[in-house]
Design brief:
Layout: H1 2-18, H2 26-30, E1 35-40, E2 43-49, E3 55-58
């Protein structure tokens, strides 16, 4: 059973190693705002900071 779990994880690890993630600080993205709109292929999403300083993305 352990070998199956390792085999299943291997393709994911290969993809992650081939394309490193880009990290953007939320402060840079929000630019001193508490809410922004993101246009993703014509669909508008809202990213906002809650009162508890968490991020929420809604369509």
């Amino acid at each position: 059973m352990e070998a199956q779990c390792e085999a299943a994880a291997a393709p994911h690890e290969a993809v992650a190693a081939a394309s490193p993630l880009i990290r953007i600080k939320s402060e840079e993205l929000l630019q001193r705002s508490r809410e922004i709109e993101i246009d993703h292929h014509g669909r508008i999403y809202r990213l906002r900071v809650t009162q508890l300083n968490k991020l929420i993305l809604t369509a």
